[in-house]
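Predict the 3D structure for this chain.
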Amino acid sequence: MVTATQSKEKFLDLSLGKTRFIEAGSGDPVILLHGMGMSNSANTFDTIIPGLAKSFHVLALDQLGFGKGTRDVKEGPTFELVLEHLREFMDTVGVRQANIAGHSMGGWMAAHFAYQSPDRVKKLAMLNAAGLNVQISPGVGGMTQVPPVEKIAGQVKHGLFDQASLTAEQIDHFAKMQHEMLSQPNGLNSLAGLLHIMQTPDLRARYMLHRRLAHIKVPSLVLWGTGDVMDPYPTWTQEYDKLHGDMSKSSKPWVIPGAKYVMVKTGHNTHWEMPEFTVNLLTDFFKGK
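Done. Predicted structure below.
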């Protein structure tokens, strides 16, 4: 896990509100974008930040409306505002171009960012990314009160493909972290704008990745788990199996040209279940190996 000597928690006042991020390491910048959920934040990457910080300048961001940042976003958050928030964050910290890795909804946003602003993205990594399933994943919204830490710990463990992949200490860490984020002012209501878009079929369709991925020009990596019952299961899995892993032969419109595709035996949180593998994969990819 990240320790105080390995990383620094920092805050910025941006035009869309207070923004928190976790910074560690030095070298080429790597921006990490977390997924959807009222309890989510930059801390979802606590398992891989120390490893990545050995080679990169890591910036794990609380996306707009999440974490310890402003949780009361006027007329938002929306896809447009989340992406604009990322651009302003990069401008403010002086990062013109970065490697970007996004998990779940973070992968969805990262792909939109690479599609819209390719000059700001050196390489793109989509980790268990959302944005391809027509229906919203179950359990994303609808929480009306903050559950106790013990219940959240049970949910964390239940979501693992290999329930022995996290220690009891690690499960407790993530449960307490999620409880803290849910307990932030307006923590249970801050994502109404995004949830409305994701839960409304015609609005959700506007932001799906199917028509965009084929036009992404930056070098890309796509990682997902066979035990992932959320996005992008089973969209990529069926195609990957049919082509025996050679996605370059795919004629699907949602395949990124020249991308590297990696399928592993995990659930939705590969960076929790296989942190060393994820760090090594991202390090090699971002370094061009």
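The first helix runs from residue 49 to 53.
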